[in-house]
Amino acid sequence: MTQTIEDLIPDYLRGLPVYVPGKPIEEVERELKIHAVKLASNENPLGPSPKAMVAARAVLGDSNRYPDGGTHALRQTLAERRGVSPEEIFIGLGSSELIDLAARALLRAGRQGLTSEGTYAPFSVAIRASGAELVLVPQRDFAFDLKAMAHAITPKTGVIYLANPNNPTGSAFGRKEFEEFLAAVPDGVLVVLDEAYIHYAISMGLRDSVEAHHQRKNLLILRTFSKVYGLAGQYLGCCTGSRAGCAG
């Protein structure tokens, strides 16, 4: 019997939901014939810093060349600001690629990926796309129930995805609650902490997660340039993790 290309697609990919981003503002205005104020993708309405635009224009003439694949200068600058080594910084095509890479590296059929209901949809998509079992823990008061998530860990758990503050509910957990959760996570389970909106949570310490990273080698901290820095069009994200994790 002859197989088709469709027959070769694994079952766990066939029913995978498609992540639908917000429509470009030009398309919305064209369809509805209005002047639109776009909020769907949480883009920074103030735009990028004038300094960022000057820097971008300065290197535009070199755009015929491939960039440094190791992103040495950017990793060096970020490492200095975060108090880590450049080897502990990894750059990706937005946080979305980093979320996906964590699942690709550590999950497979027979394993489990753990996250919460009511959180960033790509967490679940990444887990399911790896062939692993998706485990969703109910929220408590529109927030991550970290105690329940700790109880949901099994020997099959490979990756746990958290967002702090959470997208889309806006809730956040504090340092003490997070430290108690990390203490319950086995060393062989990777915790992916997405802090895309951390700069908007003024009451939270920006360095809290970095200090936790120095204590735990199974913590991957994601940040993005798409939100507070107004560079969504550059699609640039970074993560802080152990040297072995970032090298992998």
Please tell me about this protein's structure.
- There is one protein chain.
- The chain starts with 10 loop residues before the first helix and ends with a helix.
- It has a seven-stranded mixed sheet with strand order 1-7-6-5-4-2-3, sandwiched between helices.
- Helices cover about 35% and strands about 15% of the residues.
- α5 (about 95-105) packs parallel to α6.
- The protein is of the alpha/beta class and about 250 residues long.
Top keywords for this entry?
248 residues; alpha/beta; 7-stranded mixed sheet; globular
Mean pLDDT: 90
Question: Numbering strands along the chain, what is their spatial order in the largest sheet?
Answer: 1-7-6-5-4-2-3
Helix and strand sequence = HHHHEHEHEHEHEHEEH
What is the terminal-to-terminal distance? 40 Å
The coarse silhouette is: globular
**What is the number of strand segments?**
7
* Class derived from helix and strand content: alpha/beta
User: Could you give a short account of the major beta sheet?
Assistant: 7 strands, mixed
Helix content: 25-40%
With helices defined by DSSP (H or I, 4 residues minimum), what is the helix count? 10
SS strand fraction: 5-15%
The poorly predicted ranges are none
Topology:
Blueprint: H1 11-14, H2 25-32, H3 50-59, H4 72-82, E1 89-92, H5 94-106, E2 112-116, H6 121-129, E3 133-137, H7 146-151, E4 157-163, H8 175-183, E5 190-194, H9 208-215, E6 219-224, E7 237-240, H10 243-247
Parallel strand pairs: 2-3, 2-4, 4-5, 5-6
Antiparallel strand pairs: 1-7, 6-7
Helix pairs in contact: 5-6
